[in-house]
Design a protein that fits this description.
Chain lengths: 330, 714
C-alpha cells in the first residue's frame, strides 16, 4: 500500500510494536503463561499453548513512539494509542486503548481475544490518534510493520503460507489413491492451503531438502523450483477465483492474507504497466469476461517462475552439472 | 616524645641519615651523644629527650616540628631527579620494552587493563565500589612548559633525541611525540585514578605491589586470594605503551603504611630502548625520584613522599585521601581512534580531534567490558564505578561522565541485576523476564589428578534490547565480572527472538555456588595476559594438565546448548517437506523490479517524493518528484490520486489540472507525462477536481501513485 498523505500534520518517526507476553485461559478458568519464545518473527504462536480448548488469549502489547508524540508545542493534543486486531476472514476488529508509561514514549495494554472470534491468523497493529485542528480521533502515526496473532501455529512464523504434509498417496483419499505416482498435490484454495508430498515417491522429501552442488543438490533445487512454480500458479488462480468485491462499486479487492501479497507481487510481472489496483481489475475482467484470459496464461506462468526462482535454479544446476562432468573427466 | 607522631622515630631517623649521607657516629659527634645512644634510638630501644631533639633538628638541617611529627622527610636529602639504568655488563642492547611496544596503543586495551587492575586491588573488606576515573588533559604553551619543568624535561630531552634518531619503531613514535610538542606546543596527559583500592604498597625493591609495577616488567604480583585477574601483570605494559614518550608518573595513597606513611608516594618510570647519550651508555629504563643513598654509588632513585606543591606541579594531586593509585600517562595517544592506520600514517590534523575521540572510545570500551562489574543488586553496591572527563589547560571541556551500564548494555545489565536481586525465572513468560539455568562444569584437579570438582555456572537469558549493538551473543565472565568471552551463539534457527545471554563462572556465580573457588582458579589459569579468552596456557598445562583446556570447550558447548533450550521453541523434528521448502514458501516480495534493465529494456519511472495538502477550493494540491528511469524518452507516467479507505477499493479522484514543472511535459490528451531525453528528475504539480471527491479533502487521506508504461514504438 502506498503511503497515505493526510490533510493535517502527522507524527514522523518510527512506531514499533511488539507483543511482550501472551497467556491463554483454559476451559477451567486457569491462565497459562506462554513462553516468550511463542512470540518471535513479528508473530505470536498461540498454538504453542499446552492448554487444550482455551477460550481467551490475553496479549500484552507494547508500543514505542517518538518522544514528540506527547511533547508540548506539537500541533496535536489528546493523544491516545490503541491496539487493533483484525482478521479478513472473520471481519474481526478488536481494539484496546493502551496506557502510557512515565515518559510517554512507551504505551502498554492488554488485548483480550476470544478464540471463537479468530479463524486462523489475525493482524495486530496500532494507531496513534489525537485531536488535530479541532478534529478528534485523527490518525497521527502507524507502525511500518504489523504483528500476526496465529491461534493455530505452534511456531511463530510471520510469512506462513501453505501447510506441508507428507503422506503416502497410496493410502490417502480416494482421489489421490487413483494417482499414486504424483510427486505432490497442491491445494491453494479455501481456508487450508496445503501442499502434500507423496512419501510413496522414494527419496522425494530427502531430495527437496538436499544441500550442496552434488547430484542430489542439483535435482533437489530443480524439484524445489518446479514445486514453487506450481504453488504460485495455483495460488494466483485460487486467489483470483475467490476475490471479494467492493460493496459500492463492485470492483475486486485484494485478499487480506498472504495470498493478497503474492497476487500483488505476481501482478507486477503480469501487467507491469498498471498500478496494483488496476492490474487486479484488469485480470479479473479478463478472467470473468469473454476474451483476453488465454493470452495472460504465459504471463502468469512467467510470474510464478520468477517468484519460484526457476531461472536461477536452472542456471545453478547447469553450472553444477558442468563441474561434476569436469571432475569426472579429470 | 610526641605521641601524635607519624612514623616511629627509629626507622625515620635511620632514613634521614641515609638521605643526608651521614653516619650514626657523625650524628653522635654533632649532637654530643655517644654512638651507642644513636644506635639505641634507631633500633627503638630508647628515645631522645626533648632538648636532644632540638639538636638533632639542627644537625639534620630541619626544624624541631618535623622531627616531632615525622610525617615528612627532612629536606636535607638529595633533590628529586632522573636515574637511568646503565647498560648491562655484557653490553647487550634492548631496543625497547618488548611488552610495551609490541602493539599499537589502543585505549580499549588500556581501559580493560587498568579497570581490571583496579577491580583486583579493590579493598575487599569494603562494600563500596572501586572508583576509576580517566582524565584526558591537553596541555598547551605555558601550561605544558610548567609541567615539563616540574619533571625535569631538560634532563630527559637528550635521551629522547638519542632515541628519536634510531630507526626502530620506538624511535619513530618518540620522534612524532617530540614533533607534536615542538611544533604544536601541545602535550596530552591521560590520568587513570582509582580510589578505594590498595595503592602501591610494599618496599621499593622487595616483593610487593610497588615493585611489581615500578621495578619489574613482567612480574604479576598477586594478592593471596581467589578471584584475581593477576593485577599489574604483563598487561601493565599497556600503560607505558599508551605513552608515545614511554613515560608514566605515579602517585599512590597506600592502604597500609609504608615507612609509617600513606599519602603521596610518588615515582616516575620511563621506558626507552638502549641508547647512548654523551659518554653514557644506557640500558633502557629510568626512574624519577629521590636518590637512594643505600644504593650502589647512591644514584638509584626511589619513590619519595611528595609535598603538596610538588604533586600539584606534576599534575598528580588526588581528590581525596582514599587509598588508590594515579597513573599519569605523559604524551598519551590512541592509534585505534584513527581506524586501521599505523602510527606512521597519522597526520597532525587527525590528532587535533584525538582527545575527544579518545574520550568516546574510552566510554564505549568501559561500557562494553565492565557493565557487569558496574551493576549492583540484591542490596550490594556495584564493584566498580568509572568515569571520563576531558580538560584543556586546566579547564574542563567535556564534563565528567559516569559510565551507565544500563545505557550501554540495557539487556545484559537487566540480566545480571535480576540474578543479584534473585528475581530470575525458570521460563520466561514476559518479555522483560530473565531466565536462569545452571550449567555444570567439571573443573579439573590440580596436578593432573583424575576426576574433577563440579561447578555450577549461572546462565542468564533475556530479550535483546533494540539498542544493543549485537544480538544473540553469549558473554562469559568470572569473579571480577569483566567480559572475557563474547561470541555469537552458533547454529540458531532463523525465527529466534533476539536475545542476550550471560554466563557467570567461578566467583561470579556467587560465593556459595558449587565449586566456585576451584573454577575461579582454573579459569584464571586459562586466561592469556590479554584476559580476552580462555584457552590452553602454559600455566594451565603446568598446574593442571595438557588436556585441561578441553573442559572449557565442553563448558562452552553445554552453555550454548542450554541457551538454545531457553530461546528456541521446541519442535518435534524437521518441518514437513524440509527447511528448504519452508523457506521457498515464505518468499517475500522483491522491491519493484528495477533489475529489468539487464534485458536492455527501460526501467520504469518511480515516484520518488510526494507532498500534498488540501487547499481553499476544497481540492488537494499535489507536488511530485519522479525518477524517470534509465531511458526517460521511452516511457510515460500518469499520476493517479485515490482517497484512502480502510477496506474496499479506494475511490479514484480526477485531476482538475496537471502542470509539468521540470524535466517533463504533460499531455491533456493522453493524460500522462512525457519525459525529456536524459532527464534525471521530473517534477509536476497537480490539483484534484473537488467535484469528484467522495468526501471533503480535509476528511480523508490521499494516496498518489504512478501508472507507467513503455511508449509504443512507431
Amino acid at each position: 500500500m502506498a503511503r497515505v498523505i493526510r490533510p493535517y500534520p502527522t507524527l514522523k518517526g518510527t512506531v514499533a510494536l511488539r507483543v511482550q507476553a501472551a497467556s491463554v485461559k483454559g476451559p477451567d478458568g486457569d491462565w497459562e503463561h506462554l513462553d516468550v519464545a511463542a512470540s518471535a518473527d513479528r508473530t505470536t504462536a498461540l498454538g504453542s499453548a499446552d492448554t487444550l480448548g482455551w477460550t481467551t488469549a490475553r496479549l500484552r502489547v507494547s508500543v514505542t513512539v517518538p518522544a514528540k508524540a506527547t511533547a508540548a508545542g506539537e500541533p496535536w493534543s489528546d493523544v491516545n494509542v490503541l491496539a487493533i486486531l483484525t482478521e479478513g476472514a472473520t471481519n474481526l476488529r478488536a481494539t484496546v486503548l493502551l496506557r502510557p508509561t512515565d515518559d510517554g514514549t512507551e504505551w502498554i495494554g492488554d488485548l483480550d481475544v476470544l478464540r471463537a472470534d479468530v479463524f486462523h491468523r489475525a493482524n495486530l497493529t496500532v494507531q496513534m490518534v489525537g485531536t488535530v485542528g479541532g478534529v478528534p480521533g485523527r490518525v497521527l502515526a502507524e507502525p511500518t510493520e504489523d504483528w500476526v496473532i496465529d491461534v493455530r501455529a505452534a511456531r511463530p512464523e510471520h510469512g506462513q503460507t501453505f501447510t506441508v504434509r507428507e503422506t503416502a498417496f497410496s493410502r490417502s483419499s480416494l482421489w489421490l489413491r487413483n494417482m499414486p505416482d504424483l510427486p505432490w498435490s497442491i491445494n491453494a484454495a479455501g481456508s487450508r492451503p496445503e501442499v502434500r508430498l507423496n512419501t510413496d515417491m522414494e527419496r522425494l522429501t530427502e531430495l527437496l531438502d538436499a544441500q550442496g552442488d552434488g547430484p542430489a543438490g542439483i535435482v533437489g533445487s530443480l524439484l524445489l523450483a518446479q514445486l514453487g512454480e506450481a504453488m504460485w500458479t495455483a495460488t494466483f488462480h485460487a486467489a483470483l477465483g475467490d476475490l471479494e468485491s467492493d460493496e459500492e462499486d463492485g470492483s475486486p479487492l485484494f485478499p487480506a492474507d498472504w495470498r493478497g501479497e503474492a497476487l500483488r507481487d505476481m501482478l507486477r510481472t503480469v501487467l507491469p504497466d498498471l498500478t496494483p489496483g488496476e492490474a487486479l481489475r484488469e485480470v479479473h475482467r479478463r478472467r470473468t469476461g469473454d476474451h483476453g484470459w488465454g493470452e495472460l496464461q504465459s504471463r502468469i506462468q512467467a510470474a510464478a517462475q520468477e517468484r519460484a526462482g526457476l531461472a536461477k535454479a536452472v542456471r545453478e544446476a547447469v553450472r553444477a552439472l558442468e563441474k561434476l562432468e569436469r571432475e569426472e573427466s579429470e | 616524645m610526641d605521641v601524635e607522631a607519624g612514623e616511629d622515630f627509629g626507622p625515620w631517623l635511620a632514613r634521614q641519615l641515609k638521605l643526608a649521607g651521614m653516619t650514626q657516629t657523625e650524628l653522635a659527634n654533632k649532637i654530643e651523644v655517644t654512638r651507642a645512644a644513636v644506635s639505641a634510638w634507631i633500633t627503638g630501644r630508647a628515645t631522645p629527650r626533648v632538648e636532644t631533639i632540638g639538636r638533632i633538628a639542627i644537625a639534620l638541617g630541619t626544624d624541631t616540628v618535623t622531627v616531632h611529627t615525622r610525617t615528612t622527610d627532612t629536606q636535607s636529602g638529595l633533590p628529586v631527579t632522573w636515574y637511568h639504568r646503565p647498560q648491562h655488563e655484557d653490553a647487550g642492547r634492548e631496543l625497547g620494552n618488548a611488552a610495551a611496544f609490541a602493539f599499537d596503543p589502543d585505549v580499549e586495551v588500556l581501559a580493560r587493563e587498568t579497570c581490571q587492575n583496579s577491580l583486583d586491588e579493590r579493598l575487599s573488606a569494603s562494600e563500596r565500589p572501586v572508583r576509576v576515573r580517566y582524565t584526558l588533559h591537553e596541555l598547551t604553551g605555558e601550561h605544558m612548559h610548567r609541567f615539563l619543568d616540574a619533571m625535569h624535561w631538560d634532563k630527559l630531552l637528550p635521551h629522547y633525541e638519542a632515541v628519536a634518531d634510531q630507526a626502530q619503531k620506538v624511535g619513530r613514535v618518540v620522534a612524532a611525540g617530540l614533533r607534536d610538542m615542538r611544533e604544536r606546543q601541545r602535550l596530552v596527559l591521560l590520568r587513570v585514578d582509582d580510589y578505594n583500592a590498595a595503592g602501591l604498597t610494599g618496599d621499593d625493591y622487595a616483593d610487593g605491589r610497588f615493585a611489581a609495577v615500578v621495578r619489574r616488567q613482567l612480574d604479576s604480583h598477586k594478592q593471596a586470594g581467589a578471584g584475581l585477574g593477576g593485577s599489574y601483570g604483563l598487561g601493565k605494559a599497556t600503560i607505558w605503551g599508551t605513552s608515545r614518550l614511554g613515560l608514566v608518573l605515579i602517585n599512590s595513597t597506600l592502604s597500609e603504611p609504608h615507612e609509617g606513611r600513606t599519602d603521596n608516594r610518588v615515582v616516575g618510570r620511563l621506558d626507552l630502548p638502549w641508547r647512548q647519550v654523551g659518554d653514557q651508555v644506557l640500558a633502557g629504563p629510568a626512574w624519577f625520584g629521590r636518590p637512594d643513598p643505600a644504593s650502589p654509588r647512591g644514584e638509584v632513585t626511589r619513590s619519595w613522599w611528595a609535598e603538596a606543591d610538588e604533586i600539584e606541579r606534576l599534575h598528580l594531586a588526588r581528590d581525596s585521601d582514599e587509598p588508590g593509585t594515579s597513573f599519569l600517562i605523559v604524551g598519551a595517544y590512541d592509534m585505534a581512534s584513527f581506524d586501521k592506520r599505523t602510527s606512521d600514517e597519522v597526520s597532525d590534523e587527525d590528532e587535533g580531534a584525538s582527545v575527544l575521540a579518545m574520550r568516546d572510545r574510552l566510554l564505549k570500551a568501559l561500557g562494553r567490558n565492565f557493565w557487569a562489574a558496574m551493576t549492583g543488586g540484591g542490596g550490594l553496591a556495584p564493584m566498580l564505578r568509572a568515569s571520563v572527563r576531558v580538560l584543556r589547560d586546566g579547564t574542563e571541556i567535556a564534563p565528567e561522565e559516569q559510565v551507565d551500564p544500563e545505557r550501554e548494555q540495557p539487556s545484559r545489565t537487566r540480566a545480571v541485576r535480576a540474578f543479584l536481586d534473585g528475581t530470575t525465572v525458570d521460563r520466561r513468560t514476559h518479555a522483560d523476564d530473565v531466565a536462569m539455568k545452571l550449567v555444570t562444569m567439571n573443573v579439573p584437579l590440580e596436578g593432573g589428578a583424575k576426576g574433577g570438582v563440579p561447578h555450577d555456572a549461572v546462565l542468564l537469558v533475556t530479550r535483546a534490547d533494540d539498542d544493543d549493538d549485537r544480538h544473540n551473543c553469549l558473554v562469559a565472565m568470572r569473579g571480577n565480572r569483566m567480559v572475557v568471552r563474547d561470541r555469537r551463539v552458533p547454529a540458531l534457527p532463523g525465527n529466534v527472538r533476539p536475545f542476550q545471554a550471560v554466563l557467570l563462572l567461578g566467583l561470579a556465580a556467587g560465593p556459595d555456588a558449587r565449586g566456585a573457588e576451584a573454577a575461579e582458579h582454573f579459569l584464571r589459569a586459562a586466561e592469556p595476559p590479554e584476559h580476552n579468552k580462555w584457552r590452553q596456557t602454559e600455566e594451565l598445562a603446568a598446574r593442571y594438565s595438557y588436556s585441561a583446556h578441553r573442559r572449557i570447550s565442553t563448558l562452552v558447548r553445554d552453555a550454548n546448548a542450554a541457551v538454545k533450550d531457553l530461546v528456541v521453541v521446541p519442535r518435534a523434528e524437521r518441518p514437513a517437506g524440509g527447511e528448504r521448502l519452508k523457506k521457498a514458501m515464505v518468499r517475500r516480495a522483491k522491491p519493484p523490479a528495477r533489475s529489468q534493465s539487464r534485458r536492455g529494456a527501460p526501467t520504469a519511472p518511480i515516484l520518488d517524493t510526494v507532498e500534498a495538502k488540501p487547499i481553499d477550493s476544497g481540492a488537494w494540491e499535489v507536488y511530485g518528484e519522479i525518477k524517470p528511469g534509465s531511458v526517460p524518452e521511452a516511457v510515460f507516467a500518469a499520476p493517479t490520486a485515490r482517497f484512502a479507505v480502510r477496506s474496499g477499493s479506494a475511490p479514484v479522484v480526477s485531476w482538475q489540472s496537471v502542470e509539468a514543472i521540470e524535466g517533463c511535459t504533460w499531455s491533456d490528451d493522453d493524460r500522462s507525462l512525457t519525459f525529456e531525453p536524459g532527464a534525471r528528475r521530473a517534477t509536476f504539480r497537480a490539483v484534484t477536481d473537488p467535484t469528484t471527491h467522495p468526501v471533503r479533502a480535509s476528511s480523508s487521506g490521499l494516496v498518489v501513485e504512478l501508472r507507467t508504461g513503455e511508449k509504443e514504438q512507431h
